[in-house]
Amino acid sequence: MKHVRLYQNAPLKINDTMMLDEYASHHLLKVLRFPQGQDITLFNGDGNNYQASVISVKKQCEVRINSCVPNLNESSLKLTLAQGVAKGEKMDFLMQKAVELGVSQIIPIFTERCVVRLKAEKLKKRMQHWRKIIIGACEQSGRSVVPELLDPLDLSSLMTQDYGDIFVLHHRAEHSLLDFGKSLRAMIIIGPEGGLSDDEIIYATQQGAQPLLLGSRVLRTETASLAAIANMQLLWGS
């Protein structure tokens, strides 16, 4: 049986017994038909893996925590993805793969060419949905630090914050990542479908962002985001 990793938003301590939350219990008992006596891995975002034994498989799953081991697979690059909000499943896909590739933070941004416009209640539900995707990607990819999903911003609000070295993706830029020195903390700004407008790119560069070229071809937003993250991790991170 494939080894199971599950997130628990709770303190975890060696020798403690605990009931898994409703979602984790349902996944183990109803989806996986997980047997009593087998081991799983738990994490709560503190950077450690907690090995636990399943000791009860009744209505809710009970486990005993046996050991704690630091998880050392986090990237040395603290990378923030500021992603123009894309439609539907594209944004879900982007979030999932960005987590797998090791980002530290994700900031949805609303830009001039965003097709998606979310009012308060719908935005709240979408944020909850995205957080579930982020946690699921951590479970799948072996991460024990959960990337932070920040509240959506517009570009002007985004540029008032300090995220380290800032890069704005632009298919008419002149410099690639190879032209920049190593960064330990960075942010990549990527537009939605249709990209960032010329005015937005000018504004971002005036505020200190470096225009970044990924190649001679125009990439879709989901391709551009993941290519940028992968290249930054290869050059500067894990």
Can you describe this structure?
The structure is a single chain. This protein has 238 residues and is α/β, with parallel strands linked by helices. It folds into two domains: 66 residues, Hypothetical PUA domain-like, domain 1 (Ribosomal Protein L25, Chain P); 159 residues, 3-Layer(aba) Sandwich (Alpha/beta knot), CATH 3.40.1280. Helix content is 31%, strand content 26%. Helix 3 links the parallel strand 7 and strand 8. Helix 2 packs parallel to helix 3 and helix 2 runs parallel beside helix 6. The longest helix has 22 residues. The radius of gyration is 20 Å and the shape is elongated. The model has no long low-confidence stretch (mean pLDDT 92).
Percentage of residues assigned to helices: 25-40%
CA(first)-CA(last) distance:
29 Å
What is the structural class?
alpha/beta
Q: Tally the helices.
A: 6
The oligomeric state of the chains shown is single chain
Compute the CA-based radius of gyration: 20 Å
- The CATH superfamily of the largest domain is SPOUT methyltransferase, trefoil knot domain
Count of individual domains? 2
Average of pLDDT: 92
Question: Using DSSP, what is the number of strands?
Answer: 12
Main sheet: strands, sense, barrel: 7 strands, parallel
Task: Please provide the ordered H/E string of secondary-structure elements.
Answer: EEHEEEEHEHEEHEEHEH
Shape descriptor: elongated
CATH topology of the largest domain: Alpha/beta knot
Strand content: 25-35%
What is the second-level CATH architecture of the largest domain?
Answer: 3-Layer(aba) Sandwich
| Uncertain segments | none
- Please give the CATH class of the largest domain: Alpha Beta
